[in-house]
Amino acid sequence: MDSSFRKIAVIGSGAVGGFYGSLLAKSGCEVSFLIHSDFEKISKQGLKIESIWGDFGVLPLSKGRVNQDKISNPNYKNSYQAYFVNDSKDFGSDVDTILICLKSTENKQLAYLLQAFQDISHQKKLQIVLIQNGIGQELFIHELLPFAKVFAGLAFLCSVKKSPHCIQHIDYGELTLAESQPDQTACGIGSELKDLGNLFQKAGIPVNLEDDLILARWKKLFWNIPFNGLSVLLNAETDQIVQNQDSLTLVRDLMAEVQLAAKAEGRLIPTSFLEDRVKRTFSMKPYPTSMKLDYENGRAMELDAIYRSVLKRAQSSNTSLPNIKFLLHALEYLEKNKSIDKK
Amino acid sequence: MDSSFRKIAVIGSGAVGGFYGSLLAKSGCEVSFLIHSDFEKISKQGLKIESIWGDFGVLPLSKGRVNQDKISNPNYKNSYQAYFVNDSKDFGSDVDTILICLKSTENKQLAYLLQAFQDISHQKKLQIVLIQNGIGQELFIHELLPFAKVFAGLAFLCSVKKSPHCIQHIDYGELTLAESQPDQTACGIGSELKDLGNLFQKAGIPVNLEDDLILARWKKLFWNIPFNGLSVLLNAETDQIVQNQDSLTLVRDLMAEVQLAAKAEGRLIPTSFLEDRVKRTFSMKPYPTSMKLDYENGRAMELDAIYRSVLKRAQSSNTSLPNIKFLLHALEYLEKNKSIDKK
Fold this sequence. Notes:
The structure is a homodimer. Chain A is 43% helix and 20% strand. Chain A has helices spanning 17-26, 39-45, 110-113, 118-123, 138-144, 191-202, 213-233, 238-243, 245-264, 271-283, 290-296, 303-316, 322-342; strands at residues 7-11, 30-34, 47-51, 56-60, 79-85, 97-100, 127-131, 149-163, 166-180, 207-210. Chain A has a nine-stranded mixed barrel, surrounded by five helices. In chain A, α7 runs antiparallel to α9 (245-264). Chain A starts with 6 loop residues before the first strand and ends with a helix. Chain A binds chain B through residues 233-234, 236, 240, 244, 246-247, 249-250, 253, 322-323, 325-327, 329-330, 332-334, 336-337, and chain B through 233-234, 236, 240, 244, 246-247, 249-250, 253, 322-323, 325-327, 329-330, 332-334, 336-337.
């Protein structure tokens, strides 16, 4: 597959998918965004990206309309174009790459959303890139589209939706990419992964390729497991968590359990990595985690992807993770109680 | 020592000591309350008790003034009398019983407060009754007054200070009494303990005598360890905690650790006791725990008596209590962060 031009379908066009998809459109790919809510508005106005890397707009393109120069919108200084569809059946059969950036809490929708690609995936090599937190969700994609090549992206990105059609990219943006195998073994850095890396890099996104997806996932969980949950439970930002000795002890205890769980899957992560994550958080700009934002805005928290999946995997190897279990139960209580409050 | 008349010094004249001390004054004992803040006001007006067992007042008595009938206060329907002192040196040498109802967070004051009794405790059999949450604080009393007899009271009481001189008794009131030994062994129910029980019972307080203080303390911790901490961490009342499956799991996990820690000290508590505590909480009137009230009002939480003491005792037997440790660290974070908020 050519690394410089692709026909990309974006499923989950929010603060992550809307941002990366727009950068790919800007770099010359043919991008189609699936939009559910606010389709009327976005299909007319397109998306606006306010990024620390430069602002730009992505204007709506109609199938058949080719002269991109004719379209401009005075609201956007630099404008590019993309398709906006309301149903995954409208993506069209020429798609070669699917970027899935749904929040993991929405994964139940994928069985329906990927139906449209079932025939295509038999005819040609479809590539899927799943950008999500957590661990193990790729298995579901392998089941749904067994003939597709599955890659996973781990985003280190701070972006928010400012309004239905405006995404603000606040900080970071690096993407770690790795290939996924149904048996979850490491499969190295092949030419397809390299091409995929080039695609994102050409779009201005810093890319890091990893030969073992599961190891990369565990490494990301080293940060997500303590900081996402504790930020909700202690109503704290990341800087407050690392600056207090007691919460820092909780961070270290939780990280040590992630280390144990990773080890049970043959992924040895040294304790120096743990300390490095702590140090990096000290020097990070303080910000509320995505889970804290979800909780405060009454959205579902990614408890399945980040916590339940880890406990389930650890159970199969009889690895005891009491701190992670405690944190999950407390978060479950808070989630249920929050929704009671809202009733 | 006569069970029906005693000269009692009350140290810690708050919602617990003020209530029990006033009942003892009402029953005919000579009670002296140590009052620090609001001494001017209370030494003139006395204490007002608004109790589900009946309202009454305790009016100030001056040393030397004996005709109690002359004193009355139109604010109190039923009035009794007691002394109010501002310094423990003013208790006088005829005291035979010291009721200590300080919050455990104030125990550092005891070294000074009990100095006044050091000579007396050599001359006669002084009895100390320590009514506090937690475990092991009696050891400090044994050290300070090695010649005194030490008893401990575990209060199952719901009372609050409505104003500096008014205590509201909302619910319950039962007192479990046991004798304390410096080596923390069980010492049975002797005649002195029985007399003490009669003293409180005569004052209208339901009393339960136990032959093993440490076992009684562990049994009380079965409730205090989960419900005090979780009520703060989850911002929940007791009914919310038992009605949610996730927080109930946390309760059971924490109780199982208390069971383990008790077992390490030779106190076997059956799992049926654990379930009984859960069931009793289901049928209890929902109320915020004392720790939640402390936290919300910016007062120190009893983390030493309820959590650190337990972890310390468990450490000496290499008993691992990860859930209790997690809860303590989270509470420590919240306590420090709360005081930062208040600055």
